Please model this.
Amino acid sequence: MATRTVLHELTFLLGLLCVAKADTGHFWHVTDHHLDFTFDEDAVSCHDDLTPSQRGRFGNGLCDAPWRLINSSVYAMKEIAPNVDFIIWTGDNILHTTNESRDLSTAINLSTLDNITRLLRDVFPDVTTYPAFGNHDYFPDAQFPSHDNEMYQHMEITWGVWVNDSNFRRTFRKGGYYSSLIRPGLRLISLNTNLYYTRNRLALNFTDMTDPAGQFKWLNDTLAAAVRTKEKVIVIAHISPGLKGYEGFLWMYEPYNDLLNRVISRYTESGVIRAMHFGHDHDDEFKIYYDNKGVPRIPVFIAPSVTPWRYKDSQGELGRPHNPGIRLVSYDRSNGRHLDIKQYYLDLEKANRDRHAQWQLLYKATEIYDIPDVTAGSLSKARKRMLHSSKKHVQDYYERITLMADDSKCDAKCRYSIYCGMRYFDIPGFNKCLQKYPSLAFRPVSSCFKLVVALVVLLQLF
Ligand SMILES: [Zn+2]
Model:
């Protein structure tokens, strides 16, 4: 009898433990919508002359997203997971154009941001969205200033409906960045990394060049405070630090990239940063910050875009095609640990053919990588498998980057660049990593910003 009672109690306790373990919350990550509000008329974002019927009902890889595509993505989020804890939205809502002064203005960009904000609010009225600016949100593109301006003022009011607290107001006007408490013990930090973007020409003349808008110092102080108060942090921003995966260049001016890495590396061992989420690349990628003992510490996720628009370089060469994507993340509410990622996508060609947008699950990260969760340790195992197991692992990863829109082959250079880019967030580390692999002569990336390198190195911040 006594044994039965003990067993009963043990079963009850195990049940309680399972319930405690299952405190799983979900959030959506959406990014890079790039609305072409002229899609049904001139479609100014399109690369070539396409007739309206060739553009497709839900869009075309040669153009930015029509409203119909963006609208369907938000309603798909609602249908797939309506009861999320929050949404993160990492910017770039404005169309690409070769004639910016004709097609865009501060007023047009602000109204586009307001419209997509309104859509998210209408469809998810009880859910907080945490936004971050993308480089295209500003007019002119990428020229974010490190001081108060019309865009910060306007968006402080629009986005203040979600994150209207003193922490938000204190810094948003200054530089478009903020932090906000998601729940007790879990904080969100939204950075404006556009200040460091290599296409931001203002950065060459910032009066506060060593720390634009005081964001580095603020980030350092906010992370230090979180360590003290035992909070965990999720960091979001548009442009990620480190190298653009297999292409091997930095998005940020090198000194700013290095400074951001330096601040983050100070907090790797503490485990305060649970994950970092970015957009900008229009690709699906992950990376990992390791501490200086080589222990994997922070998972870094780059989410694919909603727009299908393909980059075209100055020689007229088009980037890889990619399908539109939306991402659902599951996490442990009690400590912010990231548990899984479900990546959804729209097969754009099929949607146009069927005249119906059927968003579907492409993968569940724990299943495709055969890992228990998506923490840095687990992702590090997936990364090693890509190098040491069959080439299929990295080829599959390479195709998923485009959400299965492109099955071109990832050769040895591509394979090792992915492997090294996943771990090294600076040019010397990346090049050193590549040198370990035979027959790879990788072009060193030059920085047009050597003057600032010297300045920043001299000014040993913090
Ligand atoms: Zn973008």
Observations:
- The CA atoms of residues 135 and 356 lie 31 Å apart.
- The first helix runs from residue 2 to 21.
- The chain has 16 helices and twelve strands.
- The chain has one domain: 26-458.
